[in-house]
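re: the backbone from monday

yeah here it is again, tokenized this time
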């Protein structure tokens, strides 16, 4: 028992004194921080709030972002391939040039968000609430079928 106490204390000191630039720990609120270039691939971020967070060029491949909130957050040039974004809220978020290939975006609410040149191949938008102009823009380039939900991207958007 006496052996474990100094070992635990040493590990705690190492964690506190670890050098800057290492990956951020997973938490439930990121407010006005920069996570640029971080690798959160495959991480469970369900219910996490990103408020005015810089998430530019992040690797979020396969991450679970169920019911996450992206409020005035920059997700530009990030990779969200195969991410689960079901029930997420996008409020004035910037997803310019983000890669959402095969993402699960069922039941999302996206208001005032920017998706310029975003790859939406194979995305399932079933029951998603998007700005009318955003839906029209997505319908011009929607293609593919989501490999998990089997939903056709165009049909899930309600494209004609």
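seq for it, each position gets an aa:
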């Amino acid at each position: 028992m006496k052996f474990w106490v100094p070992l635990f204390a040493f590990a705690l000191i190492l964690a506190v004194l670890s050098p800057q630039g290492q990956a951020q720990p997973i938490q439930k609120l990121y407010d006005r921080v920069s996570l640029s270039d971080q690798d959160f691939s495959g991480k469970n971020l369900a219910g996490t709030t990103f408020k005015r967070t810089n998430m530019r060029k992040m690797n979020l491949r396969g991450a679970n972002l169920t019911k996450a909130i992206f409020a005035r957050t920059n997700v530009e040039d990030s990779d969200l391939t195969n991410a689960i974004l079901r029930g997420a809220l996008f409020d004035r978020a910037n997803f310019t040039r983000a890669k959402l290939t095969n993402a699960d975006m069922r039941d999302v609410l996206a208001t005032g968000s920017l998706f310029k040149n975003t790859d939406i191949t194979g995305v399932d938008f079933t029951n998603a609430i998007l700005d009318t102009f955003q839906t029209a823009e997505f319908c011009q380039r929607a293609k593919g079928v989501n490999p998990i939900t089997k939903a056709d991207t165009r049909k899930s958007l309600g494209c004609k």
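DSSP finds three helices and six strands in the chain. The longest helix spans residues 4-16.
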